[in-house]
Write a structure and sequence with these properties.
Shape: globular
Distance between the termini: 54 Å
Largest sheet: 2 strands, antiparallel
Structural class: mainly alpha
Number of strands: 4
Order of helices and strands: HEEEEHHHHHHHHHHHHHHHHHHH
Strand order of the largest sheet: 1-4
């Protein structure tokens, strides 16, 4: 039978924009009443949903005019992606990246499982502790180079990164953007219930590691299954002959590591975000050029080449964000959430906790922001937990699972779309790879929630 040809990712995203507009015409408009909390953020008032009377539907051409709005809404991450691309272009030109990759391949060439497990563990810890996600974008080219050098493919590299940060978000210990916000809204002591989340971190991490390792071994045996891009074979061969890791390149690597450490401290202690992160990468570019003695003109040229390579990435991020813009402008997001949440009130404790997990997973399609999802759904789920007889801590855990794990499959997540575009991994191939993992975590997560209910987790 002829194989179905999957359209380009941009076609899929554009189709979802059109579908989102159709939903705004089919579903009734509605809204929850909201209040501004002590931190200046809006929170939903539970039980306050009402349909909007006399609301106007979006005009026929809204799916077109929403696209510039989507790019504007995602402007910070789009510009950050360009700055990362430029900085990595200069980093690559110094030879430091190739030298580092060569050394790592020599050290771990016979132990690919160590690269996979170590990578997943590191990304999971970063997301679990301080909510890292966008910050991982600079690691995509390095992971791809390591993966190709070990005989794997681009999908293996993306699996290491995305499954790592998914496990970190899903079982987060004290992620300030998800756990802390959700517990605050639910009226729980901040970071409470840590013991159970730390226990859950281990099995979910092992499931992710096994999934990526199994795939990597399969593409080793069956090279025709690899996800590749033009030049991969020559690139992988070139990595086996790497430049010397001399003193200037060591200094560049040290400065780069220091910049990333400085960035992490800034995020954790000073609440930095994409603007400050972008500034660090621009400054890092200048320092690297000075150390490598690359002239201004060549630095600019390499910077532009690196940024140019991520143009497709930037476009896809803008189109992905547009889907949410259309649903927000059409005033149907609250309608969808209300329609899905209402049946949960009729379920028993265990069924309701699993239902909350599924509800949060679905909601993540329409509100891919972790903190945004918490402010919309937790005011509804916390009193619902009281109603069905489960502790509010279980509702927070269900929110974590639904937001964190689903982050790596919903095409409205701009970070996921950006990572896939940078890695040149088609969306359909990624979904085929990650869907079995999602089934595993949906089952394991449901069991974990049932156990939490039985244990009286609080």
């Amino acid at each position: 039978m002829p194989r179905l040809k999957v359209p380009h990712t941009l076609v899929l995203l554009f189709s979802m924009i059109v579908l989102a507009q159709l939903l705004t015409w089919i579903l009734p408009q509605g809204h929850y009443r909201r209040v501004v909390n002590e931190e200046g953020r809006e929170e939903v008032i539970a039980g306050s949903f009402e349909q909007t009377e006399g609301g106007e539907h979006l005009p026929v051409w809204a799916f077109l005019t929403s696209i510039p709005k989507g790019f504007a809404a995602a402007g910070d991450i789009i510009f950050f992606v360009f700055l990362i691309g430029g900085a990595f272009g200069v980093f690559r030109a110094t030879g430091a990246a190739d030298a580092l990759i060569g050394v790592l391949l020599e050290k771990m060439g016979g132990r690919p499982a160590l690269l996979i497990f170590g990578g997943i563990l590191l990304f999971a810890i970063g997301s679990s502790a301080i909510g890292m996600a966008e910050e991982y974008l600079p690691f995509v080219p390095i992971l791809i180079a390591l993966s190709l050098g070990m005989g794997f493919d681009r999908l293996t590299a993306v699996g290491i990164l995305c499954i790592g940060y998914s496990v970190g978000y899903g079982t987060a210990a004290f992620n300030p953007f998800t756990v802390i916000i959700a517990q605050g809204i639910a009226g729980l002591e901040l970071t409470s219930g840590l013991w159970y989340r730390l226990i859950l971190f281990v099995p979910f991490l092992l499931v992710g590691f096994h999934h990526v390792l199994s795939y990597s071994r399969r593409v080793e045996r069956e090279p025709e299954l690899r996800v590749t891009a033009p030049g991969d074979e020559a690139f992988a061969a070139a990595e086996k002959i790497h430049p010397e890791l001399d003193r200037p390149r060591l200094l560049i690597l040290a400065v780069t590591a220091g910049a990333i450490a400085f960035l992490v401290v800034g995020i954790q202690q000073h609440h930095w975000y994409l603007e400050e992160m972008g500034a660090i990468f621009v400054g890092l570019t200048l320092v690297m050029a000075l150390i490598a003695r690359i002239g201004p003109s060549r630095t600019a040229q390499e910077f532009c080449v690196g940024a140019e390579e991520l143009t497709t990435t930037a476009l896809l991020i803008g189109f992905a964000r547009t889907i949410q813009v259309v649903l927000d402008d059409g005033q149907v997001v609250d309608t969808i959430i209300h329609g899905v949440a209402t049946p949960l009130a009729t379920m028993g404790p265990i069924a309701a906790s699993v239902g909350m997990f599924l509800f949060q997973s679905l909601t993540n399609l329409f509100i891919p922001s972790g903190s945004g999802q918490a402010f919309v759904t937790m005011p509804l789920m916390a009193p619902l937990a009281d109603l069905v007889g489960v502790h509010r801590q279980v509702a927070v855990l269900a929110y974590q699972f639904g937001d964190g794990f689903t982050n790596i499959i919903v095409p409205t997540n701009a970070v996921l779309v950006g990572i896939l575009a940078m890695a040149k991994v088609p969306l359909d191939r990624w979904i085929r790879f990650v869907f079995p993992f999602m089934v595993k975590v949906w089952v394991l997560g449901s069991v974990a929630l049932a156990v939490a209910v039985l244990l009286g987790y609080s």
